[in-house]
Amino acid sequence: MMDIVSSYNEWDHLEEIILGIPDYACIPQDEPAYRSKLDAADLNTFTAGLRKDETIQKARVQFDNLARILEYQCNVKLLRPEKIDYSKSIKTPFFEIENQNCAACPRDTLLVIGNEIIETPMSNRARYFESMAYRKILNDIWEKDKNMLWTNAPKPTMADSMYNLDFPWDDKSKERKDWIESYKYVTNETEPVFDAADVLRLGKDLVVQNSFTTNRKGIEWLRRHTKSRGYRVHEIHFPGDLSPVHIDCSLIPLVPPTNERKGILMNCPERPIAPADKERIFSGSNWEIQSAPMPFTTKIPELCQSSYWLCMNLLLVSPDRAIVEETEIPTINYLESLGIKCLRVPFRDVYGFGGGIHCVTSDIRRRGDRKSYFPNFD
Ligand code: NVA
C-alpha cells in the first residue's frame, strides 16, 4: 500500500493536492484577529455575512479553471473540501459569533510535514471550525495510508484574553509601526497559535514567521512536536510588514539548491527579512535570497485581507513549472528568466476570499524525500 501523505518542501513534483472552494463564503464579523488584517479604509465600513452570490459565482469559475489545469495539464490528483454553511452562528464557552468564514484557503488550516497533517491552532474566531471541511478527506486518507499521522494541535480558546485588545488597528499609524518593530502583535502569548501558511517547508528545516497568526508559543509547540523526527524550526520576522500574516507573500522558494549551485528564495522587497534573522538562519546555508519584482498592479479588491504582494503567491508544481496569476507579468518574466515555465491562470476574483493560488491549496503528496539544505545546522 502506497503512502498518500508525503510532502517535505514547496517545489518537488506535485502528485496530489487539496483545492479550496468558495461556497457559502462569508465576511467575518468584527473580531480582533480579523480587524488586524484590514486596511484603515476598510476598518469601519464592512458588513459581515454571506458574500454576494455573484461574487461567489465569479470566484467559482476561477477555482474550477484552476482545478482543470491541476488535473488535466499537471496530472495532479485533486481533493475538494465539503460544503459547509458558514453563514451559521457558533457559540463556544468563550465566544459567540453570527457567521463564520469559508473553506477557500486550506493552506492556513492544514500543515503537511512529511507524512503528517496537522490541523492548525488558528486564531480567527470565524475560522474556529474551518478544519471540519477537510475531516472527510483526512479520515479517508488516514484509513488508506497506514503511515499517515493525523494531528489536531491544541485548540485555542479564542477568548478575549488571547488578544491584545489595545492593538493599534490603524495600519498607517506610528504606534502600529512601533508595535510591529518590537514584534508585538494582535495575538498575545497566552496560548499557542499558528496558521500553516506561516510555515515555509524547506526539507529538514521549517522557517516559521512570528506574526498576527503565529505567536512564539505556537512556534515552540511546533519545535517540540517535530524535534524527535529531526526537524529544525527557525523563527523569522519581516519587520517592514505592518500586517504580518502568512509567509507566502514574503519569502518563497523558487529554485531548489543542487550540488552545483545555491537555491533561490524570493523575498518581498518591501518586507526584507530582519537582518539578525537572515544572518542566523541563512548564512552558511545553501540558499541565496533575491528580491521579488514589483507587482503588475497595486490594486487589490476591498476587504481582501491581503496585499498586492499576492503576486508572489504562486504554486510550484515541479521545480521547473509554476502556476501564477495571469496578470502578474513581472513575476512571470522573472520566473521564466530562472527557467521556470509559468502556467497562467486568472485568479483575481478569488483574492477577496483570503488569498492567492498558493493559499487556496494544500499539498498532500510531492515526489521526493526529506533533505537538508542548511549545512550550517547539520
Ligand atoms: N499577509 C499577506 C497575505 C498572505 C496570503 C499579504 O497580505 O501580503
UniProtKB/TrEMBL annotation:
Q: What is the protein's name according to its record? A: Glycine amidinotransferase
In which compartments does the protein localize?
Answer: Mitochondrion inner membrane
* Function as written in the Swiss-Prot or TrEMBL entry: Catalyzes the biosynthesis of guanidinoacetate, the immediate precursor of creatine. Creatine plays a vital role in energy metabolism in muscle tissues. May play a role in embryonic and central nervous system development.
Q: Which family does it belong to?
A: Belongs to the amidinotransferase family.
* Alphabetized GO MF terms: glycine amidinotransferase activity
Its Gene Ontology biological processes? creatine biosynthetic process
Q: Name one GO cellular component term.
A: mitochondrial intermembrane space
Identify the catalytic residues.
D195, H246, C359
Q: Which reaction does it catalyse?
A: L-arginine + glycine = guanidinoacetate + L-ornithine
